[in-house]
Amino acid sequence: MEKVNDMLDLPDTDTLYAALVARDPAWEGRALVGVTTTGIFCRLTCPARKPLARNCRWFATPDAAQAAGFRPCRRCHPLGATAEGEPLVRDLMARLDERPGHRWSEADLLALGHDPSTVRRAFKRHFGQSFLEMARAARLRGGMASLVKGSPMIDAQLEAGFDSASGFRAAFARLFGHAPHRMRQGSDLLADWIDTPLGGMIAIADTSTLHLLEFIDRKALPEGLRRLSAHVGGRVGLGRTPVHDRTEAQLAAYFAGNAPFLDVPVTLHGTPFQQQVWRALQDIPAGQTRSYLQLAASIDRPTAIRAVARANATNRIALVVPCHRVIGADGTLTGYAGGLWRKEKLIAIERRYA
């Protein structure tokens, strides 16, 4: 196979074709294939019949493929976020939105004609957790909202869809590090839920600043909550402040394309170096990205690339402190604690702000 000029920081075509034949998910968001016999471009994981190698052209971005005259595939949806390209994921996410309080089980998946192990792998690949774990988080959101309103424990557990108080407390403790009844006592840092188009988020704030904003399904969220609780002497409870309202309004405007800068005051809990990195992240305009090297240079620490990457990974105020705007030096999307599918979506959303 001959070398193709439409490639930007991509490997040789033999490697790409092997990934196409294997439907290798490792190349999601990094490479696309255009098929000269159909005029269509696809993800490498597209379920369609694979073309001959001589009929393939390779692209690093959808824009490059479209500029070359190729149309997006209607089966794998290469213009959407990675997760949107998989029908199984789209179907189950829509069902979860329709029935957030339902106690989903493997039996439900089988009844819908889905193999539970296939569903588990697909959701783990896209979101870092299983569909059933996401469903439990959605139910927990209902119980949390009830507790914020002051509902008795039994009402909260029933609204969350748990059939026992111990089950609700255990799920809550895994998230917050302690049982919910302890969070209803007097506190000056309050936690509440904020819905966004990319999923629910936990926001913790006092009456003046935001202290934490994380997607509910982030694996490290429980540890982050425990660290924050320890940092402030356990003064974290359930409730809402004007800062929650302001954050929610700013996020709504951001996702609607009306707020390139999330104007929310924050308190950063970290070392002086970490705080320096996080402040530098806030200086990156929406619609732009930086490499770790560029971020390190911006704080006059050009050799501290790894330390900058670690600080970026430990950011606890997502979106307001936009760690998703840091990408690999070669332009590829690198790890994002909220999930690469969200990073892909956020960068796409911010292109309108460029």
Can you describe this structure?
- This protein has 354 residues and is of the alpha/beta class.
- Among the domains are: 13-79, DNA Methylphosphotriester Repair Domain; 82-164, Arc Repressor Mutant, subunit A, CATH 1.10.10; 270-353, Winged helix-like DNA-binding domain superfamily/Winged helix DNA-binding domain (Arc Repressor Mutant, subunit A, Orthogonal Bundle), CATH 1.10.10.
- Helix content is 42%, strand content 11%.
- The strands form 3 sheets. The protein has a 4-stranded mixed β-sheet.
Highlighted features:
four-stranded mixed β-sheet, 14 helices, 354 residues, Arc Repressor Mutant, subunit A, DNA Methylphosphotriester Repair Domain, alpha/beta, single chain, 10 strands
In short:
The chain has 354 residues and is of the alpha/beta class. Among the domains are: 13-79, DNA Methylphosphotriester Repair Domain; 82-164, Arc Repressor Mutant, subunit A; 270-353, Orthogonal Bundle (Arc Repressor Mutant, subunit A). Helices cover 42% and strands 11% of the residues.
Number of strands: 10
Tell me the name of the CATH homologous superfamily of the domain at 270-353. Winged helix-like DNA-binding domain superfamily/Winged helix DNA-binding domain
Poorly predicted tracts of residues: 1-8
Indicate the proportion of strand residues: 5-15%
The CATH topology of the domain at 270-353 comes to Arc Repressor Mutant, subunit A
Overall geometric form: globular
Cα-atom radius of gyration: 22 Å
Query: Which structural category fits the helices and strands?
Result: alpha/beta
CATH C-level category of the domain at 270-353:
Mainly Alpha
What is the name of the CATH architecture of the domain at 270-353?
A: Orthogonal Bundle
Strand count, sense and barrel status of the largest sheet are: 4 strands, mixed
Q: Estimate percent helicity.
A: 40-55%
Largest sheet, order of strands side by side? Answer: 3-1-2-4
Span from first to last CA?
A: 37 Å
Mean pLDDT: 83
What is the tally of helical segments?
14
Order of helices and strands: HEEEHEHHHHHHEEEHEHHEHHEH
